[in-house]
Amino acid sequence: MSAIPVKPGKYKIHAHIIGPTSLLTATEYAVKHGAPVITDRLNPLPIEQEWVIDYPDAGQESVPGSPYVIHLAYHPAAGLVVPEDRLFVNSVARAEWAKFTFEPVIGGIKIISDKGLALRAGHRGAQIQLVAPTPEFQETWTLEYVGPIPSGEE
């Protein structure tokens, strides 16, 4: 499949797993590579569940197939990183953040890393893994647009 464009902005990222709605969620504790990213039920406070999807470079124009970076909406210095094929959020330089593209699949999208691996939500509470893409529902996501990138960050 070919990559699709995504409007830069603030999003909730829904996992397609069995059970109640689950969102991509930053955990509250840090380990060696940062805070693990999991799926969890909708929290009343969006601080750990709203993400900004943006171009890797500030002011970059949209180019079909170009990658995006993802960071916490309320902590713009904390971006997604992918050591050891597991998803973490960490306050490292933007250049070190993982880059992703989005591909359409039945029922949603696949989020593909710059290494060609897909984000996979095994079950609620499990850390997100990156795996070779397969037609599995655990690798399907829905982006819920919440609004524009918060001012002062663009």
Strand count, sense and barrel status of the largest sheet are: 8 strands, antiparallel
Share of residues in helices? under 10%
Rounded to the nearest angstrom, the distance between the terminal CA atoms is 30 Å
Count of extended strands? 12
The shape, in one word, is globular
Low-confidence parts lasting 5 or more residues at pLDDT below 50? none
User: What is the string of helix and strand elements?
Assistant: EEEEEEEEEEEE
- Average of the residue pLDDT scores: 90
Number of helices: 0
Structural class: mainly beta
* Rg of Cα set: 14 Å
Question: How much of the sequence is in beta strands?
Answer: 35-45%
Question: What does this 3D model show about the protein?
Answer:
There is one protein chain. The protein contains no helices and 12 strands. It is 0% helix and 38% strand. The strands form 3 sheets. Strands 1, 2, 3, 4, 5, 6, 7 and 12 form an 8-stranded antiparallel β-sheet that branches. Strand 8 (100-105) and strand 9 form a beta hairpin. The protein has 154 residues and is mostly beta strands.
Throw out a few tags for this protein.
12 strands; two-stranded antiparallel ribbon; single chain; eight-stranded antiparallel β-sheet; mainly beta; 154 residues
